[in-house]
Design brief:
The chain is of the alpha/beta class. The chain is 49% helix and 12% strand. The chain contains 9 helices and 5 strands. The radius of gyration is 24 Å and the shape is elongated. The two termini are 29 Å apart.
Length: 279
């Protein structure tokens, strides 16, 4: 989920609900896996209610301070999961005081049980790696970069719009001794690995396409050129995004894809030069 203005009210509400859910559960279990997320949502509701009703009068201000900051980020269009790190201490203080409150023993037990359940579920999601809300955490770019290095060793040109792929390709080329200069940490700098908008020589071309909202138009232009000038040799898609339908409904302009990764191979009889679309 991306922060930004220009969203509909419904999209802002959906994003706020997602961020609140992820705060308690983590992004390892997506809310669109209903069989899991509904019980977890109930546990979150129990946590919020028990904290609000059990924290002492002197400490309840921390609870409301968190939600004021949370709401402010949401209204400003700046609410994303990574920014919750900076406001969560207010909530943690409130939860801590609720757990140590001298009264309301039943509510303290409910709060503790809910927190344990949410923690176990979050860790199970991270270990299982099957229900992630943010699939970029589990994209297999390292393995794909090693495969690309083998193909490049045979003369193929590699094209990708994924910064993660370009990062891992640098190390994969270094492991095979393919770099034409000294190794430098970071993205690969080698003319056998190019991005959209760069010249591509004739021969075998492998396109590794990921989700990159900053290069959507450039990738579409490149795919049109490859389809027009080259022979398609094969294609496969990896890592389906099970939340794609919901993301399209609420965040249609976010550049999301039904599959996180697409790999296409071409044989080009002539080189491809960058095509600049008219403004």
């Amino acid at each position: 989920m991306q922060a930004g203005g220009g969203r509909s009210i419904l999209a802002q509400i959906a994003n706020s609900a997602y961020c609140g859910y992820s705060l308690f559960v983590s992004e390892a279990i997506a809310p669109w896996f209903w069989q899991i997320s509904i019980p977890l949502s109930i546990a979150i509701t129990v946590c919020v209610w028990c904290t609000a009703s059990s924290a002492g009068e002197d400490h309840r201000v921390y609870f409301w301070m968190f939600w004021v900051l949370f709401g402010g980020l949401a209204i400003a269009g700046a609410l994303v999961t990574k920014r919750l790190l900076f406001i969560t201490p207010w909530l943690l203080i409130a939860i801590g005081t609720a757990l140590t409150s001298p009264g309301a023993r039943a509510r303290r037990r409910m709060l503790l049980a809910s927190l344990i359940g949410l923690g176990v579920a979050g860790w199970a999601g991270m270990v299982g790696r099957q229900w992630y809300a943010a699939p970029h955490f589990v994209e297999p770019w390292e393995a794909l970069a090693r495969d690309a290095a083998r193909q490049a060793e045979g003369g193929a040109t590699i094209v990708s719009n994924s910064p993660s792929f370009l990062f891992y390709a640098n190390y994969a080329f270094a492991e095979r001794g393919l770099l034409r200069g000294p190794f430098q940490p970071g993205w690969i700098a080698d003319n056998r690995v190019v991005g959209p908008g760069e010249s591509i020589p004739a021969g075998e071309v492998l396109l590794f396409e990921g989700v990159n909202i900053t290069q959507v138009e450039a990738m579409e232009t490149l795919k049109e050129q490859l389809a027009a000038k080259c022979k398609a040799m094969g294609a496969r898609e990896l890592l389906p995004d099970y939340g794609y339908a919901l993301k399209q409904r609420f965040f249609g302009g976010a550049g999301q894809r039904e599959y996180r990764i697409a790999i296409r191979s071409f044989r080009c009889g002539e080189g491809i030069t960058p095509l600049v679309r008219p403004e």
